[in-house]
TrEMBL record:
One of its GO terms (molecular function) is hexosyltransferase activity. The keyword Transferase applies. Keywords: Glycosyltransferase, Transferase. This is Glycosyltransferase family 1 protein. Residues 18-180 form the Glycosyltransferase subfamily 4-like N-terminal domain. GO terms for biological process: carbohydrate derivative biosynthetic process. InterPro entries: Glyco_trans_1, Glyco_trans_4-like_N, Glycosyltransferase_grp1.
């Protein structure tokens, strides 16, 4: 039987915040516990001190003015105290920038091996919000990852970016999909029909949906480019600071607000097509969730989506630098039902083996154990 590990996860975000970092950490914790490992989570306050029986150490935090719903963890003596008390085999740094940097320093002082997971393009975030400091933050991110024992990147684009910043020892580690939650069986005909016939006219529309945070870094204002396509109804699933602008400028769209769990799975599966607008994604988990839901995908030919969408086979990629490309690509998919079916089927096949259990097992056996100097051990028969 494989040696069971004690894993301390220092994360920049955790519940009650809901985002890509939180979701990845949650799945990692769930499957570490299921496989007999012992995790500890260290995350910014506020929030519960326990997640499904796993202790969560909360540290001091501040809320940035431009994004008050996203607390930033501050360097805190609680990090090193928690690590020293827990005595982990390995420290997992989830999207390290602030709290993760403190976790890295503490781990190095305690002689603990570290695995850093690159997930958020913070310099790009600053650029999108028109804030200063992009170059200095990029250097800071690179410094953190250079000092970690191993950095895991989710995509080819992320690998190239960190490599260009001089970060060594880069390894690909993708993301899983909750195949127990997302699937075509959750499609609700009455929900689809309500969306398809909402608003103007009686003829049903092709339902094209966006799912995710409604924020500038997701470039959601580009949804306006497809909102008036003949025969198309846009459905927006999510919440964020761009919500009011979108409501004003997409008067014919349907807004569901933020959804989770089964409600989210039903929303995905009830779409005719899924579109993603952000071109600075390091991965783009919503693409995989749409594919798992049996929905054809349209995404930018940039960043993480390039690894997730084989153009013309498992989805369609548009050129984000070509003003008409998003609109023409969605129009092509909207008028070709047969193409939608082919892309949906191929996308579903692509994610069929990408369940989170196998992805977390890969994290443990190939990455945690290698930084510990342990050979990967086979599971018990």
């Amino acid at each position: 039987m494989s040696r069971r590990l004690r894993v301390a996860i220092v994360t920049e975000s955790f519940l009650p915040q809901v985002n890509g970092v939180t979701n990845s950490v949650r799945h990692v914790v769930d499957h570490l516990v299921a496989d007999g490992h012992t995790p500890l989570v260290i995350a910014p306050a506020p929030g519960l001190a326990d997640y499904r029986g796993v202790p969560v150490v909360r540290t001091r935090s501040i809320a940035p003015p431009m994004y008050k719903s996203f607390p930033i963890g501050l360097p805190d003596q609680a990090v090193e105290k928690a690590l020293a008390a827990f005595r982990p085999d390995v420290v997992h740094l989830a999207s390290p920038i602030s709290l993760g940097a403190a976790g890295l320093r503490a781990a190095r002082r305690l002689g603990l091996p570290t695995v850093a997971v690159y997930q958020t393009d913070i310099p790009g975030f600053l650029r999108q919000y028109g804030l200063p400091g992009e170059a200095s933050v990029a250097r800071w991110v690179a410094r953190i990852h250079r000092r970690a024992d191993r950095t895991l990147v989710p995509s080819t684009a992320a690998h190239r970016k960190l490599e260009s910043l001089g970060v060594p020892n880069l390894h690909r580690w993708g993301r899983g999909v909750d195949l127990d939650l997302f699937g075509p069986s959750h499609r609700l005909a009455h929900l689809h029909d309500r969306w398809a016939r909402a608003g103007r006219g009686r003829d049903p529309h092709v339902v094209v949906g966006y799912v995710g945070r409604l924020a500038p870094e997701k470039q959601v204002r580009r949804l306006r480019e497809i909102a008036d396509l003949p025969g198309v109804r846009v459905v927006v699933v999510g919440d964020g600071p761009e919500k009011e602008w979108l409501r004003k400028n997409l008067p014919g769209a349907v807004f569901t607000g933020m959804l989770s769990g089964l409600d989210l799975a039903r929303a995905y599966a009830s779409l005719d097509a899924f579109v993603h607008t952000g071109e600075r994604e390091t991965f783009c988990q919503t693409i995989q969730e749409a594919q798992a839901s049996g929905v054809p995908v349209v995404a930018p030919a940039a960043g993480g989506p390039i690894d997730l969408v084989d153009h013309g086979r498992t989805g369609l990629l548009y050129d984000p630098d070509e003003p008409a490309s998003l609109r023409s690509t969605v129009a092509l998919l909207a008028r070709d039902q047969e193409l939608r079916g082919e892309l949906a089927a191929a996308g579903l096949r692509r994610v069929a083996s990408l369940d989170w259990r196998h992805v977390v097992q890969d994290l443990v056996e190939r990455h945690y154990r290698e930084v510990l100097g342990l050979a990967a051990e086979p599971d018990a028969a």
